[in-house]
Amino acid sequence: SNMAELCVRSVLVTGANRGLGLGFVQHFLRMPKPPQWIFAGCRDPKGQRAQELQNLASKHPNLVIIALEVANPASIKAAAAKVGEHLGGSGLNLLINNAGVITSKMLDAETLEDMMETYTTNTVGPLLMSQAFLPLLKKAAQGSPGSGLSCSKAAVVNISSIGGSIASCFGWE
Questions:
Q1: pLDDT-based confidence at residue 121 (cuts at 50, 70, 90)
Q2: Of 42, 94, 100, 115, which one is least surrounded by beta carbons within 10 A?
Q3: Is residue 165 part of a domain?
Q4: Would you say residue 100 lies in a domain?
Q5: CB-based contacts of 24: which residues, under 8 Å, 6+ apart?
């Protein structure tokens, strides 16, 4: 079914300050029936790179910017608590794991630290996020009518840009 039929009461988008993440936030805001809550996760909510998000949040009371570093378990835990506060008794319908990092270095310049950070953010991050927000997702699923699986009940969506492609690996050529 298309996005117009999607009925989402609450959504969290990680890496929401630019690129695909920001695009998702803008799309949700423009929906005929926008979510009651749109949580926009980004590393530095008050920083220069989140300027566009800040502008949107000042116009849309349903948009809440959340400080979130997906490679940091303490940051994820704090974000889940903050989202839970805003939601009160209702759960989170949709978690969109979009945050990612990419370092394009030549093979001889690659480092263990960079590879670990990339893996932690892009691979372990979505797992930690899904675990931390699972109670809120379950709460939303239980509280929604109908049976079966649906983004309108509760769902986790893991997405990647072409930056995550193995087929078009640029950097080590």
A1: very high
A2: 115
A3: no
A4: yes
A5: 13, 16, 96, 98
